[in-house]
Amino acid sequence: MSLTALNIAVHYGRKPVLHGITVKAEAGEMTAIVGPNGSGKSTLLKAICGDVPYTGTLTLNGHPITKFAPWEIASIRGVLPQSSTIAFPFTAIEIVRIGLTAGREAQNPNLAQEALNRVGLSEFGDRFYQDLSGGEQQRVQLARVLAQVWRPLVDGIPRWLLLDEPVSSLDIAHQLDVMDIAARYARDGGGVLTVMHDLNLTALYADQVAILSKGRVLAAGPTDEVLTDINLSAAYGCKLRVNTPPSTALTYVLPHSASRGKPPGLQG
Is the pTM of this model over 0.85? Predict the structure, then answer.
């Protein structure tokens, strides 16, 4: 089972933003979309979620997304946007219940609290959303998405987390907590497609990576094959070096120099 975006193109007015992008995410894995600012990462996720017009083909679990009724798609995939503006004074647990009512577990009266527990906000249910820090708000929104698609597998059919920069407002400990939650969801049979800025967290957690550059896929595939000096330097326009400490065999990325000189050519 997979989520497949085939030849996706997006225009904002007359300006092309995505140029025939193809990306495939498999259930049971975390697939990360990385790239510099303006490369089209969030636009691609918005197209997949139906938030912007696009051309091309999108399939989810083998079926065209356009064939799903709204309630069906809401029961299969939960979306965490970059930011969410709440105009009314909802409490944290009321925000989570919004996701609960969109999913298939609405009959479980304890699930909203369980979702808050999972994101480390067990004591925050009665606090007003507007009174929370940016990072706390982000975790409340993640709890909402988890409540919507709580079980990664339902009758053998995977469900999906679509996350747009899920750790952008978080300190390092909570970044790891959130990435652990996403990784566990994938291990348990669900699918995770996430837009990421942090290349080291991407290297640590993602099974597959697609690098976008100027609205196109520069490279895609297994993480250790895609995150290379040449690919990253070409994408970001500065010299980057991928390193692997001998004692751990974990990949990490550091700037090779402070210069933004001409990067090496595209791999392959």
Answer: yes
